[in-house]
Amino acid sequence: MNYEKVYEGRGRPSAKTPFRRVRKTTLSLTYERCEAEIEAFQAVAGWRLYVTNASGERLSLEQAVFSYREQWQPERGFHRFKRGRLPALPIYFQDDQKIRGLMCLLTIALQVFTLMEFVVRSELAAQGQSLAGLYEGNPKRTTQRPTAERLLAAFREITLYF
Hints:
Layout: E1 2-7, E2 19-24, H1 35-44, H2 61-68, H3 72-82, H4 96-127, E3 131-132, E4 142-143, H5 148-154
């Protein structure tokens, strides 16, 4: 443990300049690598854990992995309900039937969004093409996986008269 004088104020200190004593401490650390623990961690690193309530007879391991591998897709739908284009915001209905009806309509809209993306993406992949003009500020940028929001935004300026 060492002590050092630290002078107050700016400039070069004189004999009358006030100071304070600061304690400087040096710490040391000793460690050992637990190779067995490191190897055990590396053995499972990169693995995904799938949890389901389906029985092994009803859903095999291969079927479970195939079903749950694209887990981000349902989560994306929930995000659309929370903050996206289909927000299920707090609306104060007095009647439970109206709440159920609104959620039914939002669920149908979510299914339409998902179906629209699926059809457009699969057709683009089948034809080996990509779409341009969906990104504001970058009209030449192309994509083979457009979102429903970007597709609908491309039709925003179109007016239909009938």
